[in-house]
Design brief:
Layout: E1 6-11, E2 17-21, E3 34-38, H1 52-65, H2 70-90
Antiparallel strand pairs: 1-2, 1-3
């Protein structure tokens, strides 16, 4: 029995998803972001150790140099900064 395999994608800020067959080329408009999901038996893992701030240059390198997605970098830095400042004000380190 062969399973129907798809790639599901959501545009940033929406709950509407679009399903594409595996192997489909999906162009993205400039300055947009999406969330994606793969079918069964697909795994992705990310592992990091140490202070999160020291990993930021590595984490943002692809966004900065490959996709030129500076808006997402700005949003991520703003969220991170807001969380760090909030934790510092509460005395959480």
């Amino acid at each position: 029995m062969r399973r129907h395999r798809t790639f599901t994608q959501w545009s940033e800020g929406t709950l509407h998803s679009v399903q594409y067959p595996i192997g489909t080329t999906i162009p993205h408009a400039k300055w947009t972001a999406t969330c994606v999901a793969w079918g069964d038996n697909t795994w992705m893992a990310e592992y990091a150790r140490g202070a999160i701030a020291t990993t930021m240059p590595f984490a943002f390198a692809d966004s900065a140099f490959s996709t030129l997605d500076f808006i997402s970098i700005g949003k991520a830095v703003a969220i991170y900064a807001r969380m760090v400042v909030g934790n510092m004000l509460r005395g959480v380190f």
